[in-house]
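Each record in this resource describes a single protein on a pair of labelled lines. With that in mind, the following record should read easily:

===
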Amino acid sequence: MRRADSRVVLGLHRSRHERRLLTGALDLGVTTLDTSSNYLGFRAHEVLARTAGDLLPKFRVSTKVGYFPGPDGAEHSLDPVRLRAAVEQAAKDLGREPDLVFLHNPEHSLREAAPHNQYALVQACATLDAVVAKGLCAAWGVATWDPLPLLSLIDTTVPRPAVLMVHAGLLARARTLDAADALTEAWGLEGDKVWGMSPFGGSTRTPVWDRIDPRVFLRDGSRLSRVQAAFRAAYHLPRVGCVAVGTDEPAHLGELVGALAGRVDERTVQEYRSLLRDRYRSQPA
């Protein structure tokens, strides 16, 4: 078993939740799991506890609340009562209190809450603050795919999360990267308090990865594969302390852990971000 390395988080978004993946992760030193109440058709917590309940004490477990079963599929809500109940249910289904609970994509409901969107955000964050104080989880955070709608709402009235999770990697949009940087600064977060997610935009089999060579972002890229280079670059797009990545194969997870040895060329990253901004500004309004 390797020494634990908190820079890689095993995400279970598309996972089959097989026990061999969790034992493989522990062997690789990956000791943080990220799941959500709505994964696996809202059964993720139960399946995880059933297949690997004895392993969960060896992991730091994060989950997310904000999506709920609805008559037409999943629906999003920032209602404080529903959020609190979701955290309580997560602890029950997992058989333990989560180490971290994220408010999941709050921007989905904030758009509909205007002009009371800031109030809705304050109430949701205050609810998670309260569940931490109650001992239902150890800490809370915000996981957002599009941080821009949150940015204009942040002031001293909004409770500060312990962790921020944002979309990271070469496929993240210019405005997403800039908004993530600004939100990170507004909340005074850094290092392992900022997480990246979806570094491959969903899959390493997406055709884009056959057309580009991410090794140009590394100083020593010749030693790593394209997939490894894309993963390593994600820690700088935007700057995050760890990255949540999904896989069902321990071998693939091991490849990504090995990518951490790569050294990122900061100048190339900044040039790339400048190109992204220029392209964004040139697009028709």
